[in-house]
Specification:
- It is elongated, with a radius of gyration of 20 Å.
- A hairpin with an 8-residue loop joins strand 3 and strand 4.
- Helix 1 packs antiparallel against helix 2 (35-52).
- It folds into two domains: 5-52, no CATH class; 56-159, no CATH class.
- Helices cover 37% and strands 21% of the residues.
- The protein has a five-stranded mixed beta sheet with strand order 1-3-4-5-2.
- It is α+β, with helices and mostly antiparallel strands.
- The model has no long low-confidence stretch (mean pLDDT 89).
Amino acid sequence: MKLDFEKMSQREQKLALQGIVALRKAAEALLSEDYDKSDRLMSESDRCYKELEKRVLTLHIANPWYSMIANGTKDEEYREIKPHWIARLIANPSAFYLKRAMGKELDVKPFTHAIIVNGYPKDNIPNIERKIESISIGKPKKGLCPDEFLDKEYFIIKFK
């Protein structure tokens, strides 16, 4: 895996460094013939690199919506179709409106997971991680959003 730190988020940089440090310590343990320690450190390094393969979207959500996602009663989140969210979710934002007008499929960024944060706390804790099933456009479901959202289209981020 080639690492380009300049293009990485802080989370990705931290994971990459943890993986590199664990790999280095595993090599040192192997040289000193401490095979159990080496195996443990190799597993830690592998875990870091697997985390790096995730494409994570961070969503800040207030209660009661956060609690509903946490307990499994809400399996999708909504975001307004505005320039900020178009830039965050769409691979080619400049072509978004034209493709949408022509009825073509959206070019969404390849997010695999969402980190859902309760409000805006320091260090984004508490949070929940969910796999993303799809990102589409549509109308929200009653009971999963404020009632004033029901007659308008939004980005729908569907969780597995």
